[in-house]
Amino acid sequence: MEAAINTIVGQFKEFAGKDGSSSTLSKDEFHKLVTSQLPNFVKNAKDPGAIDQLMSSLDENNDGELTFSEFWQLIGKLACKQGGFCQ
């Protein structure tokens, strides 16, 4: 599990550092992360509108960027679905 956590944190940092703040994901960074790293887990990963909606649902403070805590919600939801623990 430690390797999995390190991978998730590393991927977040890699994509967050591409433009603007290195501690948050912009809309463009989030789109690139989802399409390249989660194409089989996120429905309509190639649809920019769907990704925008997903990001909006995760962006708790509505600042147009995702902190790691906000992003982590997505990881939790995907893991829950993948494991058959939720619908």
From TrEMBL:
The superkingdom of the source organism is Eukaryota
Alphabetized PROSITE patterns for the sequence = EF_HAND_1, EF_HAND_2
Instruction: Give all residue intervals belonging to the EF-hand domain.
Output: 46-81
Pfam family, any one: S_100
Q: Which GO terms describe its molecular function?
A: calcium ion binding; calcium-dependent protein binding; transition metal ion binding
Q: What is this protein called?
A: Protein S100-A13-like
The answer on whether this UniProt entry bears the keyword Cell membrane reads no
Entry keyword Ribosomal protein: no
One cellular component (GO) term of this entry = perinuclear region of cytoplasm
Which keywords describe this protein according to UniProt? Calcium, Metal-binding
Q: Which CDD domains match?
A: S-100 (cd00213)
